[in-house]
Specification:
With 656 residues, this protein is of the alpha/beta class. 31% of the residues lie in helices and 21% in strands. It is built from 20 helices and 31 strands. The longest helix has 19 residues, at 580-598. It is globular, with a radius of gyration of 24 Å. Bound molecules: adenosine-5'-triphosphate (ATP) and magnesium ion. Magnesium ion is lined by residues 270, 274, 421, 507.
């Protein structure tokens, strides 16, 4: 029976201010606990009541959960609804003129779209898709830049019951081809070009390349949105159609296709941090409920908020917390095209000031890179509109958390560290900020209704302080329904026999502290075994990042004759990449630092410096590649989602 050891001790804790707590939706721990108890005692009516409260149904459901074919669960399955209706039409009677989207383009140009305008655009484009023969259940791949039309395309698919699969606009032709082929798409929606950090991204040309690779035969039409004046280099008559031509003369109303709760809403491929991406299939009602409910709870959303999530719609965060959750609530949200560092590292802070953003949601990778490029920049802007700050995607190192809290949030805004996955569809473990005190580096407590736990290999709960497998013990509405086309892989990956197929296995390791708080320690696949001690990656990395010289760090294991595994750390400094004697000196200092901060056992045996780390296009560190580098192996894994292949060469060289 093996558990994972926790060596990092973090004792800082930040309760919400009295003022924040008083005004919050879930106000104080008593309110939070009461909801948890309700879920414990009456699990099905807890979710059933939320589904009735938050979703507008065409036909109500009569049964909450069907678990007769577990782990293929069905929720609300005889209910009938439409997601686009829920996100648009239902706001029109009272809020037609409320701003839905504030779009800031790569060059800073701002466009505002009201709910009635968004409704009109979605209807027209939905009618356009219908004219191409797209019908309920057909798959549509969306390979777009982060512009208003990407959201219009997703909502239009939802409106006509088509299943979208968004492929991040930074992916290569090969990655696009794989996803088009796996999904069996009928239509691909793209743009002639995208804009990112002052450069153009050749989306249409890459789409053409994907077709040339073969395997896209299911596709009958490619819709091309004209984002730049450059036109398109190649045009395939009969297949390619301009977006603006497609909507010409289309009606501005489109009756929603009323679908069943369990009809798929979308497929989204995972980031590929740990292996070949999986086509995660989400349902209509369960997904929508997860997005709507978590959105209001984790951000304490109020109708006058200006919300900004910096994710791209190519990731699950962009689905749940841009296209569906906020629009479902009739929120005003900022969306942006480009990168956080263009035209300079103040982009985020300038935008928060300009649009008076009150809720801001970003990723640890962005925070770490902005600390590296200008820790003092936020102070130059008026960020007083902010009241809640969120983070998602990776564990946030406590020191990056503290910077976010103090420098960006002015010590005033709760940090909601939201743990979840493409598979869970919505946030699972995260503070409800008017109740749960936060701790730097902890995603705190599960949302009410989420039965998260940490168990050992036999499925028994582990004691506080011991790490184990993060599981969710009961199905919940927004959980992945299957892996597209591969139900067997679904069952084996997420409901393995080790736990008698009963628990959802997240694939992350975690531990809980004495107050029941969850601390994510890393991926199960990445756990190190040093002299019989099983260590997660997160804590050693956080110890490194706590050193004033270090911007980012990733650790992996490599075989060692005596210890079993040696710790190899890949480090990015805030200054430039050191070499030679200087590198050796810094490496020695960092080793001693780690030994002193968390113990000799975690001290890296080897340190390598790079200007960056290998990351997925969503900014997550790809430790599986680092593991190969550390072992001196050739890289044979799937690298289709790797953002920066050129960085691998730098990291081959040890500093000591
Ligand atoms: P793949 O499953 O293909 O390897 P991935 O797991 O990176 O890719 P996502 O679904 O985008 O794909 O990411 C979910 C994972 O991200 C989680 O399992 C967890 O490891 C990490 N993660 C997300 N949010 C947090 C968070 N707040 N704290 C710690 N880890 C997080
Ligand atoms: Mg994953």
């Amino acid at each position: 029976m093996s558990t994972i050891e926790s060596i990092l001790k973090e004792t800082r804790s930040f309760p919400p201010s009295d003022d924040f707590r008083r005004k919050a939706q879930i106000s104080g721990m008593e309110a939070y606990n009461a909801l948890c108890e309700q879920a414990d005692d009456h699990y099905l009516s807890f979710w059933g009541d939320l589904a009735r409260e938050l979703i507008a149904w065409k036909k109500p459901f009569s049964r909450v959960l069907d678990d007769s074919n577990a782990p293929f669960f069905k929720w609300f399955d005889d209910g009938v609804l439409n997601v686009s209706y829920n996100c648009l039409d239902r706001h029109l009677p009272l809020n037609a003129n409320k701003i839905a989207l504030i779009f800031e383009a790569d060059d800073g140009e701002v466009t505002r779209v009201t709910y009635s305008e968004l409704h009109r655009r979605v209807c027209q484009f939905a009618n356009g898709l219908k004219s191409l023969g797209v019908a309920k259940g057909d798959r549509v791949v969306i390979y777009m830049p982060m512009v208003i039309e990407a959201i219009v395309a997703m909502q239009a698919c939802a409106r006509i019951g088509a299943i979208h699969s968004v492929v991040f606009g930074g992916f290569s032709a090969g990655a696009l081809r794989d996803r088009v082929q796996d999904a069996g798409a009928k239509v691909v929606i793209t743009a002639n070009e995208g804009l990112r950090g002052g450069k153009t991204v050749a989306l249409k040309a890459t789409t053409d390349e994907a077709f040339e690779l073969g395997g896209c035969e299911s596709v009958s039409s490619v819709v091309v949105y004209q984002r730049t004046n450059n036109g398109a280099s190649k045009w395939t008559e009969g297949r390619d159609v301009w977006w603006h031509k497609l909507i010409e003369g289309q009606a501005e109303e489109c009756e929603p296709e009323w679908v069943n709760a369990e009809d798929p809403l979308f497929i989204l491929y995972t980031s590929g941090s740990t292996g070949k991406p999986k086509g995660i299939q989400h349902s209509t009602a369960g997904f929508l409920l997860g997005a709507l409910n978590s959105f209001r709870w984790i951000f304490d959303y109020k109708p006058n908020d200006v919300y900004w999530c910096t994710a791209d719609v190519g990731w699950i965060t962009g689905h749940s917390y841009i296209t569906y959750g906020p629009l479902g609530h009739g929120a005003t949200q900022v969306i942006f095209e480009g990168v956080p560092t263009y035209p300079d590292a103040s982009r985020f802070w300038r935008m928060i000031e300009k649009h008076k953003v009150s809720i801001f949601y970003t990723a640890p990778t962005a925070i770490r890179s902005l600390i590296k490029l200008g820790a003092d920049l936020p102070a130059k802007y008026d960020l007083s509109s902010l009241r809640v700050l969120g983070t998602v995607g990776e564990p946030i190192n406590p020191e990056a958390w503290m910077w976010y809290y103090e420098v960006v949030g002015g010590g005033r805004c709760p940090i909601v560290d939201t743990w979840w996955q493409t598979e869970t569809g919505s946030a699972m473990i995260a503070p409800t900020p008017g109740a749960v005190p936060t701790k730097p580096g902890s995603c705190t407590l599960p949302l009410p209704g989420i039965m998260a736990d940490i168990v050992d290999e036999s499925g028994a709960p582990v004691e506080p302080g011991k790490g184990g497998f993060l599981v969710i013990k009961k199905p919940f509405p927004s959980l992945v329904r299957t892996i597209w086309g591969d139900p067997d892989r679904f069952r084996k990956t997420y409901f393995p026999d080790e736990f008698e197929g009963k628990y959802y296995l997240a694939g992350d390791s975690a531990h809980r502290d004495e107050s029941g708080y969850f601390w994510i320690m890393g991926r199960i696949d990445d756990v190190l075994n040093v002299s019989g001690h099983r260590l997660g990656t997160m804590e050693i990395e956080s110890a490194l990042v706590a050193n004033p010289l270090v911007a980012e760090a990733a650790v992996v294991g490599k075989p060692h004759d005596i210890k079993g595994e040696a710790v190899v750390a890949f480090v990015v400094l805030k200054g430039s990449r050191p070499s030679g004697d200087e590198a050796r000196k810094v490496a020695d200092n960092l080793k001693q630092w780690v030994a002193h901060e968390i113990g000799k056992i975690a001290q890296p045996d080897e340190i390598r410096f790079g200007e960056n780390l290998p990351k997925t296009r969503s900014g997550k560190i790809m430790r599986r590649l680092l593991r190969s580098l550390a072992r001196g192996e050739e890289i044979v894994q799937d690298v289709s989602t790797l953002e920066n292949p050129q960085i691998l060469a730098q990291l081959q060289e040890a500093a000591n």
